[in-house]
Specification:
The complex is a heterodimer of chains A (902) and B (292). By secondary structure, chain A is of the alpha+beta class. Chain A contains 21 helices and 33 strands. Chain A is globular and about 85 Å long. The two termini of chain A are 30 Å apart. In chain B, strands 4-5-10-6-7 form a 5-stranded antiparallel sheet. By secondary structure, chain B is an alpha+beta fold. Chain B folds into 3 domains: 47 residues, Uridine Diphospho-n-acetylenolpyruvylglucosamine Reductase, domain 2, CATH 3.30.43.10; 116 residues, 2-Layer Sandwich (Uridine Diphospho-n-acetylenolpyruvylglucosamine Reductase, domain 3); 109 residues, 2-Layer Sandwich (Enolase-like, domain 1), CATH 3.30.390.50. Classes of the chains: A alpha+beta (902), B alpha+beta (292). At the A-B interface, α5 and α21 of A face α11 of B.
């Protein structure tokens, strides 16, 4: 079967496995040549580097994200300089007030590991007394790794002592509010702030004119991130044009938030409304109004009139026409998905204080303090030694708290007034203007032989970036195809701008959209071939070493083990109980996520009582403190409670990239392991000296430094720690991890649903999530990640969507932006598969993002088996399911009986 | 949100005086579950908020076999839903009160507030319409009493004059051999606004035929209202599957839904059909278990 989708050749046809993603760049905006190596916006050669699955991307935040929903980060001891802070942060060291507690029984659904919770030792200078049952895995015995250690910061969380973004209070503090555009697209002809400035209680008003001019156009390299500062500047304060409803235009600082809000009404902005582009398909039409006049259709060497297509990414291998010719069955289908929000519980909040010397301190709730610092420095032209960012606890991020938004406004207003300024967004602002996940239109054509072997696949993936380029379409291409071996491939990805909020990463950015399309099509083709959906996937599963869409070989990962586990599990093998009058069905879908690795740093202090203090450069979104305490405890032979873990600010610890991209335990874990080894090495040298031996002759085992191969009594760790200040001085271990290879994650979800044919409402009867987690440092936390990911996946699958009318958001509240509630979610069973990642500490691989990926297609496939209707758009609301299953005469009897499920 | 004056009178006359003398916009406050978000979002900008929760006439909840239920306008949904006589004689009202928002919301929200907010989707209104409830209003010019159905004038609009307060709702005792039910459809399982809501009340005669049926609809017209044609179609008939289906279709025809972010008009009409049938089925189930 031939295909007609192939229209253009870019360079010589590529052989299988050598696919080079190509992407046209707008010469004026982001010339490929200027990309520095090491940026996430790397050129095609980056395909072999770890960070991103994105072949290239010259946009702001790289696609990385995450944080599970139930998480919360613990307390931390911020100390703002010469400023008093809220009293709640002044509590005594937590150890003192926290009696050791037995951790609770393992969560309902156990992981495939002994589920004994380790008792936490009292945090005192006692020698380690291992109580937990040691585990032997892959030839190594772990004492703490793999235990369901209770969260080390549980008490601060539960008692409300943990200080989040909005908890910061500073003496003399002012409150800021933001004036936002009511128009989705308009030229700003003038802004008159005089009346607002005269309003009693108002101390300053800022507009884009108060931002320093940009040093240069185009992407700026900030560490390992590449950020388009010009776009960022517009997202902070629009200058000449507003490009989405809710874009900030001005900000006011006043003595209280009410006065600031009153002042907003006194600012007069003269707008000239422009035609609005609400969706990407309209935006791609020739002659459509343009959102930016400096984005050009991106074919190499071409520079024509401005276009809303910011990037066109291509992946190609083999010969798709020949591939379709070999196929016995071909399925072609189009899918779409809505704009959805990360819906972190905590709105963005920050405070800034600029002192007379120009030193700037920012307290904020963010996924990465260093990332915020670098963005602030680039945006405001500040030296990196003059800015300190203190990360407060974070109430969820999921990728949505990487970019600066409120921080620069606080800094500008503080600089103007000489007083600290605080800004807390409302939920309305969060939904309208912080950066949701990308909506998509995807068309796929898939061919397979009678035996199920996939022969060819073509796809056109259009992702809507909102008002500025940067939709995660490249990631969508790579991970959508992720689980499959397809010899002949052609994927075209489009990054399209419209008059909607600029998208930001959302947990496995780009992947749920793609998985919905790919996994629905795979299910259809399996059905056409009368093959069991799981068997079809097993036959086509990509093997380790085979090429991903971008040509990279698949690193070691347990996809096969995962599918084998599903095949044996009762949730799949036991037939779904059917009941008369109830439409039920079972669905299966796979998910893939590559994750990013980037850089992390920490340092470890050995206290004189043998306890440890560990300072991390990354924020704790999901229980990082606990996992890192477990790693340090494992290395030192201590209990996790003997390790105090603190999240540092940007002045107190080494550069660390965002807590996102499923990278924290993988990369920070490696850094912590290294810091432990460093400190133990220093102690080992002292032990060797005391034992009269060479440094290499000492080994550390069970809390004692022994002379290798000698029966001579060794020196206990505790003794070395106690005498450290007298003999050798303070011991500080240093850990940095950078450039680790990517450790992909695969997941398979099996869901049983019941559909009310008369209303279209879908109820989830049973949900089982399988995932290769490499090594679960803390199974309870890993399961929590999986359950949180599923919950978000169910939301975007069934109820969540931005609803627009000509670029105006109609449901900017959590009443009508429908997140699933507790009653909408079933118990989510988890099955952990542990196929170690070769470079991860103890085999750890990223776990946070992939669980959101398969949820929507698993549900869509289950709905199909229940009522015989293929849902092609997300969310699959009751109305959508009803309308799809009653296509002609809605007042008639429900549709024919469902296609037999499993 | 702008600063406003807050008053909490303890007597009805004091409250009416404040209403009569106030300049600017006065908003009575019961549970505040509608008013507070409206004020915070700037949709209402009162100059005075008049808390009515300390007025004893508005706090009454009494059942009398002769007169029926006196339901003070400031009684919370939780109190109503857990009141033994409400549960016994007016289970559909208890059902509706237990659907409003969440448990926390039900602890604050009142039936009086639900009525005065005049949302087309108010959950507690359809059962009250089926129960022939009457609204008692006090104002500067004295008191008046109206059938609840004529209390509403459109979305967010009621017949209350500037100087008037809803004091209580009186629900007559339920007819003998009757049962009532309220169901709504929401996309989620809780914490949502009805896309469509239907309350039904069935009175059976001795021969198990339908002596009287009452059907009230929510969220499918500018205001909650009865569906007399559907009701008439059931009168004097045995309530078999066909009759129920017909009533559903007639109710759907009577509905005048709009398409908005919560649902399309066509879908809402479909829901009315389904919910009418399902509520009637529930009534029959209840009557099978033994009529009150």
């Amino acid at each position: 079967m031939a295909t007609s989708t192939k229209t253009r050749q870019f360079g010589p046809p590529l052989k299988r496995g050598s696919v080079a993603p190509k992407r046209a760049q707008a010469p004026p905006k982001k010339p490929a040549a200027t990309k520095a190596p090491g940026s996430v916006a790397r050129a095609p050669s980056a395909a072999t580097r770890q960070q991103q699955s994105t072949p290239k991307r010259a946009q702001t935040p790289p696609k990385k994200s995450i944080a599970p929903r139930q998480q919360s980060a613990p307390k931390q001891a911020q100390t703002p300089p010469k400023k008093s802070i809220t009293p709640r942060q002044q509590s005594a060291p937590r150890q003192a007030q926290t009696p050791p507690k037995k951790s609770t029984a393992p969560q309902q659904q156990r992981a495939p590991k002994p589920a004994q919770a380790p008792p936490q030792a009292p945090v005192q200078a006692v020698p380690p007394t291992p109580k937990a049952q040691p585990q032997r895995v892959n030839g190594r015995t772990f004492r703490v790794i793999g235990q369901r250690t209770e969260r080390v910061d549980a008490v601060e969380r539960v008692t409300g002592q943990a200080a989040f973004g909005a908890d910061i209070t500073l003496p003399g503090m002012l409150w800021a509010k933001v004036l936002r555009s009511p128009y989705a697209h308009a030229r700003i002809k003038g802004i008159d702030t005089a009346a607002a400035l005269r309003h009693p209680g108002v101390l300053a008003v800022v507009t884009a004119a108060d931002l320093p001019p940009l040093a240069s156009k185009g992407p700026v390299q900030l560490g390992e991130l590449s950020i388009d500062v010009a776009a960022l500047r517009e997202l902070v304060l629009a200058s000449k044009k507003v490009r989405f409803q809710g874009q900030p235009v001005a900000s006011v600082a006043a003595i209280d938030p009410y006065t600031a809000a009153e002042a907003l009404e006194l600012i007069h902005v003269d707008y000239e409304p422009l035609p609005v582009l609400e969706n990407a398909l309209d935006a791609m039409k020739p002659g459509a109004p343009v959102v930016h006049d400096d984005i050009f259709i991106q074919n190499p060497g071409e520079r024509r009139s401005p276009s809303n297509i910011a990037a066109h990414i291509e992946f190609e291998r083999g010969d798709v026409e020949a591939g379709f010719a070999q196929a016995d069955v071909v399925v072609e289908e189009s899918y779409e998905s809505a704009m959805v929000h990360q819906a972190y519980l905590e709105p963005q909040a920050a405070a800034a204080s600029v002192d007379a010397g120009g030193r700037t301190t920012v307290w904020t709730t963010t996924q990465g303090a260093f990332t915020i610092k670098l963005q602030l420095c680039a945006l405001l032209g500040l030296g990196q030694n003059l800015v300190r960012v203190v990360p407060l606890e974070i109430g969820g991020g999921f990728g949505g708290k990487i970019n600066v938004l409120v921080e620069p406004l606080c800094v500008l207003l503080s600089r103007r007034t000489g007083r600290p300024v605080k800004l807390v967004l409302t939920r309305d602002e969060v939904l309208r203007a912080t950066g949701p996940g990308s909506p998509s239109f995807i068309t796929l054509k898939v061919g397979a032989k009678k035996d199920g072997t996939l022969t060819a696949l073509t796809g056109r993936l259009i992702y809507d970036a909102g008002a500025f380029p940067g939709a995660p379409v490249a990631a969508g291409c790579v991970v959508g195809l992720g689980p499959y071996r397809v010899p002949n491939l052609r994927l075209d990805g489009y990054d399209v701008v419209t008059n909607k909020p600029r998208v930001q990463p959302y947990r496995a950015p780009g992947a749920p959209q793609a998985a919905f399309a790919f996994e629905s099509s795979m299910d259809r083709i399996a059905e056409k071939l009368r093959l069991d959906p799981l068997e079809f996937r097993r036959r086509n599963a990509i093997a380790v070493g085979e090429s991903l869409a971008d040509g990279r070989p698949l690193p070691p990962v347990g996809l096969k083990q995962l599918l084998d586990r599903v095949a044996r599990h009762p949730c799949w093998t036991r037939p779904l109980e059917q009941e008369r009058g109830h439409a039920r069905g079972r669905g299966l879908a796979l998910g893939c996520w590559l994750g990013s690795t980037l850089s992390s740093a920490c340092h470890l202090m050995v206290n004189a009582d043998g306890s440890l203090t560990l300072v991390l450069g990354g924020v704790d979104l999901t229980g990082t403190r606990t996992a890192m305490a477990q790693i340090a405890a494992e290395e030192f032979g201590l209990e996790p409670g003997q390790v105090h873990v603190r999240v540092g600010d940007t002045d107190s610890v080494g550069y660390t990239d965002v807590s996102a991209g499923s990278r924290v335990t993988y990369v920070m874990g490696a850094a912590v392991q290294q810091a432990c080894q460093d400190a133990l090495g220093q102690l080992g040298e002292r032990a060797a000296e005391q034992l009269g031996a060479g440094a290499g002759e000492v080994e550390f085992r069970a809390g004692v430094f022994n002379l290798r191969g000698s029966k001579k009594k060794g020196i206990p760790y505790l003794e070395l720690a106690r005498t450290s200040l007298r003999r050798g001085g303070p011991v500080v271990g240093r850990g940095t991890a950078s450039g680790l290879p990517v450790a992909p994650a695969f997941a398979a979800h099996v869901v049983d649903v019941e559909v009310d044919r008369e209303t279209g409402k879908v109820s989830i009867l049973k949900y089982t999530a399988f995932q290769d987690v490499g090594r679960a440092v803390n199974p309870t936390q890993v399961e929590g990640q999986i359950q949180g990911g599923v919950a978000q996946g169910v939301g975007l699958a069934l109820t969540e969507a931005y609803i627009w009318t000509r670029g105006a958001l109609k449901n900017a509240s959590l009443l009508d932006y429908r997140l699933p509630t507790a009653l909408d979610l079933p118990f989510i069973a988890t099955e952990l598969i542990e196929a170690p990642a070769p470079d991860g500490p103890y085999g750890v691989r990223g776990v946070g993002e992939v669980p959101i990926v398969p949820a929507a297609p698993a549900l869509a496939n289950a709905i199909y088996r229940a009522v015989g209707v293929r849902m092609k758009a997300l969310p699959m609301t009751p109305e959508a399911v009803f309308m799809a299953s009653h296509p002609r005469a809605p007042v008639q009897e429900p549709a024919a009986s469902p296609v037999a499920g499993r | 949100m702008r600063a406003f004056e807050y008053r909490a009178p303890t007597t009805l006359s004091e409250a009416l005086k404040l209403l009569a003398e106030a300049k600017g916009e006065v908003r009575p406050l019961a549970g505040g579950t509608d008013l507070v978000p409206q004020v915070r979002e700037g949709r209402k900008r009162p100059t005075m908020v008049l808390d009515v929760k300390r007025i004893s006439e508005l706090r009454r909840l009494e059942y009398d076999p002769g007169m029926g239920l006196r339901l003070g306008a400031a009684v919370s949904c939780s109190v109503i839903a857990s009141h033994p006589q409400v549960r016994r004689y007016f289970p559909a009202l208890a059902q509706a009160c237990a659907l409003v928002g969440s448990i926390q919301i039900q602890n604050r929200a009142t039936v009086g507030g639900n009525i005065c907010n005049a949302s087309p989707s108010a959950d507690t209104v359809p059962p009250l319409l089926c129960l022939d409830a009457r609204a008692f209003i006090a104002g500067g010019r004295g008191q008046r009493e109206v059938a609840l159905e004529s209390f509403f004038r459109g979305p967010g609009r009621t017949i209350l004059a500037r100087d008037e307060l809803l004091v209580e709702v009186v629900v007559p005792p339920p007819p003998k051999f009757s049962a009532a039910s309220y169901m709504r459809f929401i996309p989620r399982s809780e914490m949502d606004i009805a896309v469509a809501g239907v309350a039904s009340l069935v009175v059976l005669d001795g021969g198990r035929q339908c002596q009287e049926a009452r059907i009230a609809l929510a969220a499918v017209a500018p205001q909650p209202s009865r569906a007399p044609e559907a009701e008439a179609a059931l009168q004097g008939r045995p309530l078999d599957a066909k009759a129920l289906e017909e009533a559903g279709e007639l109710a759907a025809k009577m509905a005048k839904p709009i398409t908005d972010i919560r649902g399309g008009a066509e879908y809402r009409r479909e829901l009315v059909k389904v919910l009418t049938r399902r509520t009637l089925e529930q009534c029959l189930e209840a009557l099978k278990r033994g009529p009150r």
